[in-house]
Hints:
With about 180 residues, the protein is mostly helical.
Amino acid sequence: MSIYSWLIVLFWFIFLAYWLISAMGVKKNVHSTNSWWGYSGIVLVVVLLLKFQQSSLQFQLISHTTTVLMLGVILCGLGIAFAVWARRQLGKSWGSRPSTKQEGQEIMTSGPYRLVRHPIYTGMLTALIGSALVGGTLWFIIFVLICALLTWKRVRAEEKFMMQQFPNQYPDYRKRTKTLIPFVF
């Protein structure tokens, strides 16, 4: 494995370790959705793709120039840093699914939430794109596309939940910020 691949693995290990440690002690939900599909679906897709990794999906689709590999590592690192920043901004109010942690809770609009409404997903997708550039195989690109579709499904569910929970505040926040890509979308 190249140094670039090792860096990608290291970044994802740091992300996972941080996520697991920071999930301890979060506040209990007052209201939440019943959706389990988001991350469970991604895990299912990963397992299936890894099973078929040795097949024709192992075809190298992206050229492994130093520039592409460095860009991939940079995107992965920046994406994970952005997701961690967003997660830290939520603190103990974070939840693995859309939820209200306390009565009177307000919408988070500071930090990365000034730029996009779903910065954790923005960071994770950016990190996945960077990882795909380093991996470069067809199966990795398919995986990123499936993750993007699952993320979009989850974003739509969260948007609906937030509109129900904050009918007076959320529409204004939506007007001021983009969904996933700052200044674009």
